[in-house]
Amino acid sequence: MLRVVVLISGGGSNLRALLEASAHADYPAHVVAVGADREADGLAHAEAFGIPSFTVPYSSFPSREAWGDELLTTIREWEPDLVVLSGLMRLLPATVVDALAPNVINTHPAFLPEFPGAHGVRDALAAGVEQTGASVIVVDAGVDSGPILAQERVPVLPGDTEHSLHERIKPVERRLLIDTVRGIATGEIDLAGL
Known about the structure:
Elements lengths: L1 E7 L4 H10 L6 E8 L6 H6 L4 E3 L8 H14 L4 E4 L8 H7 L3 E5 L11 H8 L3 E8 L9 E8 L6 H25 L8
Parallel strand pairs: 1-2, 1-4, 2-3, 4-5
Antiparallel strand pairs: 5-6, 6-7
């Protein structure tokens, strides 16, 4: 059984989907803890599923590196096989990425390498493209630049707003995340071989 720690910053809709999937006996991964970099609404999902949670508030540390050191120490207490960034709106320090690599994955609401960064949906709309998408990647030292594990196109419809487009991307993101974690757990996806 693959042990997963999920890190969030917000509402945790991807987290919720992963918790629902892992509640099924035939799903080969289990979320062992949920962490956040601030008080996040999504921690309520962990509580609802009886999953322990922790908060390492970014604002409590003098630097990103100091925050990262404490975050890494806390993550390691759970002995995860995989760390999933699920709406964590903060770049992990390189020391954290290096310590956990390659077993850190992230979801992104764009068809990478198109529209990396915090505003992928807004940037796609601003560019006037006809389609964008969702991706699951391995986290590396860059911004949304790691190896792509799964991705799927999502059309941009006439009249789309950032909200309406993001709402159509989210279910695709959730499905890709659940399938990718399953693939890692079963060995279909070999992170070490990337």
